[in-house]
Amino acid sequence: MCRIVSLSVFAAALLGGTALAQAQTTVTIATVNNADMIIMQRLSDRFEEAHPDIDLEWVVLEENVLRQRITTDIATLGGQFDVMTIGTYEVPIWAAQGWLVPLEDLPSEYDVDDVLKPVRDGLSHDGTLYALPFYAESSMLYYRTDLFQEAGIDMPDQPTWDQVREWAAAIHDPDNGVYGICLRGKPGWGENMAFLSTLVNTFGGQWFDMEWRPRLDDQAWHDAVTFYVDLMRNYGPPGATTNGFNENLALFSTGRCGMWVDATVAAGMLYNPEQSTVADRLGFAQAPVASHPKGSNWLWSWALAVPTSSDAADAAKEFVTWATSKEYIELVAEEEGWVSVPPGTRRSTYDNPSYTEAAPFAEAVLRAIETADPIETTANPKPYSGVQYAGIPEFQAIGTQVGQMMAAALSGQMTVDQALQSAQTSTERTMQQAGYLK
Question: Domain residues for 62?
Fold first, then answer.
C-alpha cells in the first residue's frame, strides 16, 4: 500500500514537472557578438529569475553573419527568432513590410519619453516604435594622448582629415607595434561602408542624386576612397581588410593604434582599465571632416525587435522591455561599473552624476548623437535618409557588394578607379532592376 502511494506521489510530481516545463515559453534571441551584448547575455539570468515561465536561448553571431541570418529569417517568415538585434536601417523598412510587432502600451515605468528623440525617431515608423534601443551611438575619433604629447600635437575639438593624415605619419611606429591609424576595412554595408559613407559625405559626395542615379563615379568618391586607401596602406595595420569594429577595438585597446575613428560605444570599453591597456592615456574628439562640415558622424542604434513570425511575442516583448529599461542600466552599473552601462539611449543616463563622473566622454558622445542628422548630411540634396547608409531596402545588397569592391581596392586587388567603376555599374544595375531608374 505504501509503495503504491509513493508511486502515485512520484507520478503526480513528475506530471507536475512536465506541466511546468510545458508552461515555460522559450524566447530565442539573435544578437551580435559585441561586448555590451555579451554582458546582456550574462546578466539575463536575473530576468529568468524574475520570469520563471520564460526560458531564454541565445544565438550570438558576428555582425555580417547576424545580418544575413535575421534578414533571411524575417523575409521568409521563418520564425527562428523571437527577438532580433537590428538597427535604425532595418526598423522602418521592416515595419513598413509588417514584419515587426509594434511596441505600444509600454509600462509607465519604462518612461519612453526618456529615450533620446533622435534614437526614438530612428526606431519608429509612422510615429510608432517598432524596436527599443539597447544602445545607441555616433562616431568619434580616439587617440593616444601619450603619443600625441611626445609628438607635440594638440588635438582640436574636431580635426580635419588632412590633419589626421599628418598625425598618422608622425606617430606611426610599426617597428614598435604601433600603427598611426586603424579604420574599418572588413567588407560589409555596416562595416567598412559605414565608415566610408561618412568619409565620402565629408568629401562632398553621396550615394544617389535626386533622380536616384548612383554617384559612385563622382570625383568626391574618387578623392575620398583614394585618401582612405593611401592612409591605410601607409599608416594602418597589415591585413586591414579583416578588421571591423571588434578587431580594431582589440588593436586599439592593447595599444597598437595611435588613432581610431569608429563608434562612440567603444569609449566605455576603452576607458575601462579592466578591458583596455590605454585607459589612462585615451583622448577623444569629434569625427574628422574634409571639405563638407556635415555627415562625418553617423547615427545608429543596436535595438531589440520582435518579429511578427514569433510564436512567443508577449514573452519576447517582456524581455525587450527589461533589457532596454532604466532598471537594466542600473543593473549593469552595479555589476560592471557606470563606465560600462549601455550608452546613447536615455536622457536620465546623461543626467546622472555617477555616469558623467565615470565617463568623461559622455558629453561628447551625447553631442555627436544629437547632431547626427540623417537628412542634412551631404553637400548636395539627396533623396534618402541615413548618414552612413541609404535608407532603402536595396541598400543592404548594394552596400555589401560595394564593400567588397572597396576592400579589393584597399588590398591592392583593384585600383581605386576600377573599384569605383565596378561599384557604379553594379549599383546602377540594381537600381534599374528595382525600378528607381528608367
Answer: 25-137+299-358
Distance CA 266, CA 264 (A): 5
Backbone angles phi, psi at 160, to 5 degrees: -100, 160
Q: Is 396 a member of any domain? A: yes
The reported pTM is 0.92
Whether 251 and 190 map to the same domain: the answer is: yes
CA diameter of the chain: 93
Reported as type and span, the H/E element at residue 143 is: strand 139-144
- 129 in the same domain as 160: no
Rg of the chain's alpha carbons, rounded to an integer?
23
pLDDT tens track of the chain, all 438 residues?
Answer: 333 334 344 444 444 444 444 468 999 999 999 999 999 999 999 999 999 999 999 999 999 999 999 999 999 999 999 999 999 999 999 999 999 999 999 999 999 999 999 999 999 999 999 999 999 999 999 999 999 999 999 999 999 999 999 999 999 999 999 999 999 999 999 999 999 999 999 999 999 999 999 999 999 999 999 999 999 999 999 999 999 999 999 999 999 999 999 999 999 999 999 999 999 999 999 999 999 999 999 999 999 999 999 999 999 999 999 999 999 999 999 999 999 999 999 999 999 999 999 999 999 999 999 999 999 999 999 999 999 999 999 999 999 999 999 999 999 999 999 999 999 999 999 999 999 997
Residue type, 68: Q
Question: What 3-state class would DSSP assign to 434?
Answer: coil
**Number of domains making up the chain:** 2
> How far is CA 397 from each of CA 224, 383, 436, rounded to the nearest angstrom?
22, 18, 15
Q: How many CA atoms lie within 13 A of 104 on its CB side?
A: 7
Beta carbons within 8 Å of 140's beta carbon, 6+ residues apart: 261, 262, 264, 267, 284, 285, 286, 287, 297, 361, 364, 365, 368
Closest by alpha carbon to 86, among 78, 96, 76, 95?
95
Residue 285 and residue 158 share a domain: yes
